[in-house]
Design goal:
about 160 residues, globular, about 25% helix, five-stranded antiparallel beta sheet, 1 helix, minor pseudopilin epsh fold, single chain
Amino acid sequence: MLIVLALMLGLLAGSYALSSAPASVASSALALPRLFDEARVLAATSGDGATIVLTPSAARAARGFDVALYRYRPRSNGAPGAGGIALEKSEHLAGALSTSATGGAPVAIFFSASGTVSYSAWTPDSGPLSQEPACTVPLNLTISAGTTLARFQLACDDARPTRIS
């Protein structure tokens, strides 16, 4: 009887974990474009753009990634941000994140006031950029949980991520 009960509880827990994975990807797939929209607006009004840093959670138990939105771009050229970017907000999103630029490592996306983007493997601990990287190919982002995926592509000339699957 105890063995049957243990098996039933195990199946129930497994079913719950699998059923929540698609929901977590779905909610993150809605949140990510909203955060990019906020970055575009901030970039247009800040005087020196905006930066989003996507960082996979360090703790395995956290299961997800952090999105930090900063006022300004981390440039050392004397612009208003002048390397001193200011955190506007951060959110934790569910699902594993990978990008075409950095795999599962952190990636920073730099938004200009004109609506273009560039990106690189950068975190605020890296300090100011001597030169903003050029964007030569779109950035692909994938959020996953189990077999459920949400894929986005971010074109260099449009700071709006397009969902491709």
